[in-house]
Amino acid sequence: MSVEDGAVPVARVVRSGVVESVHLGHVALLGPDGHLRGCLGDPAATFFPRSSLKPVQAAAMLRAGLDLDDAPLALACASHSGEPDHLDGVRRILHGAGRGEPDLQNTPAVPLDDEAAFVWRAAARPPSATAQNCSGKHAAMLATCVAAGWDTATYRDPGHPLQLAIAEHVTTLTGDAVTHVGVDGCGAPLFSCTIGGLARAFARIAVEPAGTPEGRVAAAIRAHPWWLGGTGRPVTRFLQAVPGLVAKDGAEGVFAAALPDGRALAVKILDGSPRPVPAVVAAALRRLGVDAPALDRLGRVDVLGHGTPVGRVEPVAFSA
Predict the structure, then answer these.
(1) Which residues pair with 48 in a beta bridge?
(2) Which InterPro entries does this one have (predicted)?
(3) What is the pLDDT along the chain (320 residues), one digit of tens a residue?
(4) Domain coordinates in residue numbering, the chain
(5) Is the dihedral of CA 301, 274, 233, 125 positive or negative?
(6) pLDDT of residue 319
(7) CATH architecture of 8-315
(8) CA distance 262 to 256
């Protein structure tokens, strides 16, 4: 089933008491037993999870021989903001593998962070693969190839041993067959799964023992939320607010998260807008039983009129 099939309203945009627009999508909530605890739309819908898949990719790379932990491993899972420490971290991963910035094959860009982008443009610097938000993943892919003895020049090829290993692990963690292979915005192969499958993958990562590849990924994300996103980023703020959370955002309105006991969620906004994601994620965490005071703040998405809040994005209630 394709992602547009079975999509339902997941959030309403209310301005001055009037529903101005509605975001459709899918949300899957899993209990600690792995069973569906609540949903909106169809958890069996197939889609591209975009950068939300990075923790799964990182776990696959660890299984293939990647030797990273702590902040560098979080950076391998990141869609980072391109702040100076992020870029230095990417260079350290490359240096540790005997590679350099010219070896990166992700799409050149300027930093996502507004301040970092301003400084970058003021210095008249051209777009760079290092500054692009997926450079941590690509540096880790190169490091994995070096560790495994695989060719580094073709690491983005879907038939490369690295990408075959990642695709296999996507199936292992999600429980879904990879039915579609695409090209992500950064140029790396992208593998499909279902909404529910993405939630299952995050649950697996969150509950695996310390020292396992999944456990190492979870520990890195929990300990280093800034490295996973950046200053003020919603995913970083959710990780900082909810103890033990493992989470990752993705382009086109995707977000996945899991708690240490295996409760998990996956969100896909059908129109790809990031606007309703914080409100929907906060509501999903509450539905899973999370009682963190910061969720009220993190889930508040104001609608402005002349610079003043005149409404907000309201999540839709979940089914039982």
Answers:
(1) none
(2) Asparaginase_II
(3) 789 989 999 999 999 999 999 999 999 999 999 999 999 999 999 999 999 999 999 999 999 999 999 999 999 999 999 999 999 999 999 999 999 999 999 999 999 999 999 999 999 999 999 999 999 999 999 999 999 999 999 999 999 999 999 999 999 999 999 999 999 999 999 999 999 999 999 999 999 999 999 999 999 999 999 999 999 999 999 999 999 999 999 999 999 999 999 999 999 999 999 999 999 999 999 999 999 889 999 999 999 999 999 999 999 987 54
(4) 8-315
(5) negative
(6) 55
(7) 3-Layer(aba) Sandwich (3.40)
(8) 12
Alpha carbon distances (Å) from 207 to 174, 176, 283, 292: 14, 19, 22, 20
Please give the DSSP secondary-structure letter assigned to residue 224: -
This prediction's pTM: 0.97
**Cα angle vertex 205, ends 291, 253, to 5°?**
70
Of 51, 45, 68, 70, whose CA–CA distance to 197 is shortest? 45
Q: How far apart are CA 267 and CA 12, in angstroms?
A: 15
Instruction: Tell me the residue type at 188.
Output: A
Chain-centroid distance of CA 37 in Å reads 22
Q: Which amino acid is at 205?
A: I
For helices 195-207 and 213-223, what crossing angle results, to 10°?
Answer: 90
The residue type of 202 is: F
State in Å, rounded, how far the first CA of the chain is from the last one: 22
Q: Give CA separation, 77 vs 54, 90, 190, in Å.
A: 5, 12, 14
As given in the structure block, the two tokens for residue 39 are 């949903």
Inter-CA distances, 58 with 10, 146, 263, 277, Å: 30, 15, 21, 24
Residue 143, both tokens: 């490091």
For 49, the token pair is 């999870």
The C-alpha torsion from 89 through 91 and 97 to 99, rounded to 10°, is 160
